[in-house]
Design goal:
Blueprint (H helix, E strand, L loop, with lengths): L10 H15 L4 E2 L2 H6 L13 E4 L3 H14 L3 E4 L14 E4 L7 E4 L4 E5 L4 H9 L3 E2 L12 H6 L13 H4 E7 L5 E3 L5 H8 L1 H15 L2 H10 L11 H5 L3 H9 L8 E8 L1 E2 L4 E8 L2 H6 L1 H6 L4 E6 H8 L19 E8 L14
Parallel strand pairs: 2-4, 3-4
Antiparallel strand pairs: 1-2, 5-6, 6-10, 7-11, 8-9, 8-10, 12-14, 13-14
Helix pairs in contact: 1-3, 7-8
The structure holds flavin-adenine dinucleotide.
The site of flavin-adenine dinucleotide (FAD) has 34 residues, from strand 3, helix 5 and strand 10.
Length: 360
Amino acid sequence: MDLRGTPELSPSARRRLLADLTGAVGRDRVLDRAIDRHSRAHDASHYLLVPLVVVIAESIEEVAAVMAVAAAHHVPVTFRSGGTSLSGQASGAGILVDTRRGFRRIEVLDDGERVRAQAGATLRAVNTRLARHGRALGPDPASEAACTIGGVIANNSSGMAAGIEHNSTRTLESLVAVLPSGTVVDTAAEDSLLHLRRHEPRLVADLERLQDRIRHDPDAVAEIRERFSLKNTMGYSLDAFCEAEGLLQLLNRLLIGSEGTLGFVADAVFRAVPVQPAAATGLLIFDSVDAAARSLPDLVGTGAKALELMDAESLRVARRLPQARPPWTGSRSGTMPRSSWSIGETIPPNWTASSAPLRP
Ligand SMILES: Cc1cc2nc3c(=O)[nH]c(=O)nc-3n(C[C@H](O)[C@H](O)[C@H](O)COP(=O)(O)OP(=O)(O)OC[C@H]3O[C@@H](n4cnc5c(N)ncnc54)[C@H](O)[C@@H]3O)c2cc1C
C-alpha cells in the first residue's frame, strides 16, 4: 500500500480480484472503468481517493460476499451511501461498495412511533412516510434530501435540532448488520446472542474483556462520560462500554458512528420523534462574534429548539442569494453585521408571525 492506503495490485492480482467480485454480484455491477472510478472518487468533502473498483451491492448476501472477497485479497472496503459526508468518510482507495440502489424499503410501525428503514433510504423518504403520523426521525442533518439511513447511523449524524438527545445513538432501537466475517446479526432477534457467541466467539470475548477493563477503571469511566456529554458525532462510541446493557446493545451502540469500519448496517429500527405543529425563526444581530458568543447562555435559557451562529462571511454569502432580503438594510449604520444568531423555536399554533429581525 502507498501512503494514502491505495492497495498496489499486480495486473494478475487485479484480474483475480475483479473475477471474484464478479462472482459475488455479477459483471454489470463491478465497475472498473476509469470514468466510473473517478466519478465516485469524491464525497461532499474536499478529499479525493480514487477507488480501485466500485461495486454495487443490493442485498445482505451480496455485501457479505464482497466482504469475503475483500478479506481474501487484503483490499480495504469503504461503503458509499448518500456520499454527503464532509470529512472524507465515504471515499476509499480500495473497493467502494455503493449501497444506495438497493436497501430502500421503509415500514412505518406502531402508528409512526417507530420506523424500520433499510440503509439506502434517504431521510427525506423516511420522513415523508412519517409525516402523516406527525412524526419524524430524530437525526436531522441538513443534507436530508440525499443522506441515507446507513450514513446517518455510521456517522452518528445529528443536526440542528437533534443535538445529543435525538441523534442516532439516542433514537436507534435495533439494527441488522453484516460483520466483516460475513456473519449477519439482528440485534432485536431473540436468538441473536446465541448466534453471535456461536459464530463470533473471538469478537464476543474481546468485547467482554474490553467492557470489563473499562468498567473497572473509574478514571476511564469518568473521562469517557465527561467527553461524551458534549455533542460528538463520528468516531467510536466508547461511552457504549460504560452504558450498554448486554452484548447486543453494546454491538448496536458501537456500530453507530463507526463509519462503516466495524460492519455494514443493512436496516434499522428507529424511535420516531413528534413533529411540532408550528415553528418560528428569528434573527438576532450582533456587532461581533464575541458579543454573540457571550449571549449564548441567555439564548439557551429561552428554550429555543435550535440556535445557529452565522459569522460575517456566512451573512455575506446569504446576502448574495437573489431571494435574500437582508434585515440589516434598515439598521443603524446600514453596514454589514459581524455576526448573528438564527433562533428556531416551537410556538403555539395560534401564534402570528412577525418577520422583523430582533436586536439584542
Ligand atoms: C449540506 C450538508 C449539511 C450537512 N449537515 C449535517 C448536520 O447537520 N449534521 C450532521 O451530523 N451531518 C451533516 N452533514 C454530513 C452528512 O450529510 C451526514 O453525516 C449524513 O448522515 C451522511 O449520510 P450519507 O448517506 O451521505 O453517508 P455517506 O457519506 O455515504 O457515508 C457516511 C459514512 O457511513 C458509512 N456508511 C454508509 N452506509 C453505510 C452502511 N449501510 N453501513 C455501514 N456504514 C455505512 C460510509 O462508509 C461513511 O463512512 C451534512 C452534509 C452536507 C453536505
